[in-house]
Amino acid sequence: MQQEGSSSFIRRQHEPARAEGPYRAIVEEKIPFVDSDHGDEWLRAVDRSSTGATGSNRSVVGEDDMMTESQENLARAFVSRGGTGGPSLAERRMQGKLKVSIENNTAEDSDLSDEARDEARDLISTEERSRGLRRNSISLPSLNVNDLQKIESIAQQEIMVEDESSTTSYSDGTTATPDIPLSANKLKPMLHFNDESSSDEEVKMPTRNLFRTKRRSSIAPLPALRLNDKEMMSNDFDTHSVLSNQASITSINSLASLLKEKMQNVPAIIRKKKRETKDYKLRAFVGFLFLVIVFLVGYAYVMYNQKLLSRSYFESIKFHKKTRNFRLLDGKGADLLTGTLGKTLPIEQPYNCLPHDLKDDGSVCYEWNSKARLYMNQVKSPSPDIKCYSFQWEALLDGLFPTDCFDVGGDRGFWYGGGITKGNDYILGNASFTSSPFVTGDTNMHQWGNAVKRYFLNSKGVAIQVDERTPLYVSVNSEAANKICLQGRNDQFAFVNKQSRYPQLKYTICSGPDMKSLHNGLMQKSLWDGLTEKDNDVIKSLLREPVWQIPASKQEHLTETAIYNYTESIIALGYLRLGHILVNEFWQKTIGDFRLDAERFATLDETVNILHRRGFRVSLTIQPFISTESSNFREAVAGKLLIYERESERSIPALTRYKSTTSAGVLDVTNNASIPWLAEKLKRISETVEIDSYFLDFGTAFNIPRYYQCAHTLVNPDEFKNYFMERFEGTLSIFGVSSAVMVPRPPAFLSLPPVNSSWSGLQTIIPTMLSYGIIGFPFLMPGPVGGDFVLPTQQLKKMYSFYEFELPPLPDKDLYVRWLQLATFLPVLRFTHLPSEYRDESVTAIAKELANIRQTTVVPMLERYASVAMDDGLPIIRPLWMLDSTDVNCFSISDEFSIGDGMIVAPVLTKGETVREVYLPQGVWKDGIDESLRKGSRWIHNYHVPQNKVAFFIKMPDNTRF
Q1: How far, in Å, CA of 735 to CA of 543, rounded?
Q2: Rounded to whole angstroms, how far apart are CA atoms 166 and 181?
Q3: What does pLDDT average to over the chain?
């Protein structure tokens, strides 16, 4: 029977009704079916019935009634694409094109035409069938009437079962989802070509898809396909048709069946783990992304603030205008100097200066709301590897003091310079004092010592030089912890003479590759200018021969006989060379007489001649102070030669006190008439007594009258010393000064401040020598061995710099020996008490040994580096870091020193000690006690130093080997 010979798909369905409507038209017109590239929509209805196929072998009753699986697929697609209503305009056009194409086939395309007309014939070979076929379409035989009736029956049956179930299970276990119900009269043929060259560009009516989106292609393999009663495997079919298992488009039911099948093959625990893994990865990714965002936001914030807080000036300076935070950077971007400028100003945004306030040198200028103005600029440096920058504050309000503070201590390096402080602080970061005027004074009551210089040096290779016209106040660790602050402030004494309406602060910051190179570049160079042969002889004599200071704390103690007897005791020693006899200011009857006291020095000229024949040099101490009891006072007042009271007539002198003199005037050296007057007075002395040189006792800035006024306005009281030295240069032979703010012209040596005769006084000598050497005083003269005075045992309510101290009695033997050991290695050896006064053979033996060491070892070393000091301005007595500025161990050592680069001295400075710690910088050093060789860059712990010995080490050549 024909029905029994049809495909398994037809056998599973009810007997269909006779074909009507569109189906009849299809049969009569024999329009061939071709597949479409939009195949997933017409596969849905067919897929419900196709799942029931059980095999590829089917019984065929007749060729006309036979329907292959391809025909079934095409038929189902036709039913599912039926829709509501007839075919669209585009579909009718496509049908027409297909019909014309089939009828106009040439002879060579007859095979394809026959296949389209569904005429039964033998299966054409694969190669032959591939000719003339389009890649995305295939022509199959048309359906007969019986098949169309069966398809119509299937469609009607689908409408009835639509509401019963969303899925239908078939005998093979697959599941299909019902498609949209269609009626027979709504079926319409859908003929489409997948021809890219088609000229059909009409807008297609959108088709509503009530199901999910289509799958790209089925991944389930097709077991076999039958075409024209011949069976071919899926791989062969895929070669010639797009209906292969890899390019086919499945229905919604096929997709659901495939997903269900695949999910059943995967264990539940694996699926759960996979989901958890996926969630874990998602959470990890989100967390990582969050961290990245946080990092980027934080980094951006930091960079923004860093950019906001610092603006680059001159490549090395970072300055934030609002907070005025300051940073000086090295070549690698590391901080050399940090601090805060304009400490007394409120935090506010400044403005650029107005054009008329700008300077012609190109300085950067900012103004803080009519409060202060800051100028910054890069200035000429002394060498290519040193960079210098200038800073100048101008206050615009009364009572506003410009203040700049810089960090000290910790990783900010060690600060040196300025001078010696009241607490004898060699490292400024260790000091603590309030803002004080930067002028000379007596460290017994004032903040700074007898020599100051506006030069501060940092171990990281930074130096600050303050302008001489700035009314400078300095504080350390007072206004702020770990800060050294520079302030411009006018006051009623030190800086009473205002250089501008409001105070200014002007200084220069220089940076170099290291501290030693920077310091060498900034020091005053050649000191040979104007030096005579006689001056050079004075320098050598001071290095080779001692200075014998006649002991006299009162006027009646200094007589011609005392001088003669003292020189006799010196000669009696026999092991010390004769040198300079220094007579203090008591050679006058009254200070300021500038003539010998006739009662006490009636035959001083004869005595001096005797001293000259014995080999001594005689020096007198002079000073610019004139006692009101002196006959010269009236003469000086009449000639208006004295400093006078401020805001008064020049005929009214300003008075002060000087040492034992309770009332004295001060010679105004800025007055052109005063210099010839004093020169004439001193000339009269030389006519009577042959004086070799003079020692100038300037006192300190606080010895100048409180309300002083000079013929030429002084910047500060210390400028008085500079005027005196300049005016008498070449007129007087000066071998020493008691105070200075600039390097005195050689052969003048700067004397150290008076020292108390005690162990604590002994311990202040090395830090003072090092500090004064750093600030640029290469030739230094320490006080006498044993000290200058003895402090009263009672507590003083107030101490004055002119306080009359008694000369110390003979110091303790141990203190004297250790003091003498230290003084042996200093540039000038100075005595008041002689070693013979102890009448102790051990003291004499020690003194003889030290005299031999000085003459044979120390003096040649001193002369060698005195010549270097004249050339480069470097000190003779140096801190250890000048030997190696990269060795951090050398930065804080203040109880050792070096003579140039050739010798290190480490004396004992504590009572009763015979051992000490010694540090040797890099190199090989010869021990001065046992002559052994010692390697440098290390500490020598518990180094034994007997009472009769002093620790010193001589630098050996670099090629020395053990």
Answers
A1: 12
A2: 12
A3: 78
- Give the integer Cα–Cα distance in Å for 467 and 375: 14
The helix (run of H) or strand (run of E) holding residue 76 is helix 69-80
Q: What is the DSSP letter of 596?
A: B
Q: Report how far apart, in Å, the C-alpha atoms of 497 and of each of 715, 808, 896 are.
A: 6, 40, 42
With tokens 């009736």, the residue in question is 149
Q: For 470, what's the count of Cα atoms within 13 Å in the CB-facing half-sphere?
A: 25
SS3 561: helix
Q: Vertex 318, ends 316 and 320: CA angle to 5°? A: 165
Secondary structure class of 633 (helix, strand, coil): helix
**What is the bridge-based pairing of β-strands 547-549 and 580-583?**
parallel
For 503-625, where are the alpha helices, taking DSSP H only?
515-522, 533-544, 560-573, 604-614
Return the pLDDT at 3. 38
Q: Integer distance in angstroms from the first to the last C-alpha of the chain? A: 125
**Alpha helices for 249-366 (secondary structure H):** 252-265, 268-309
Find how far residue 32's CA is from the centre of its chain. 86
Residue 475: pLDDT band (50, 70, 90) is very high
Q: What share of the chain is helix, strand, coil (3-state, %, to 5)?
A: 30, 20, 45
Q: Using an 8 Å Cβ cutoff, are 501 and 577 in contact?
A: no
CB distance 321 to 313 below 8 Å: no
Report how far residue 940's alpha carbon sits from residue 933's, in angstroms, rounded to the nearest whole number.
12
Residue 957 backbone dihedrals phi, psi, to 5 degrees? -55, 155
Structure tokens at 62: 């007749």
Please check the confidence at residue 14 and state whether its pLDDT lies above 80: no
CA-nearest of 907, 511, 438 to 717 is 438
How far apart are the C-alpha atoms of 673 and 670, rounded to whole Å? 9
pLDDT, position 47: 44
Rg from Cα positions in the chain: 56
CB-count exposure of residue 282 (10 Å: 0-12, 13-18, 19+): exposed
pLDDT of 209 > 50? The answer is: no
685-694 pLDDT per residue, tens: 988 899 999 9
Nearest alpha carbon to residue 698 among 680, 720, 677: 720
Other C-beta atoms closer than 10 Å to the C-beta of 708 total 21
Per DSSP, helices labelled H in 427-559 are: 515-522, 533-544
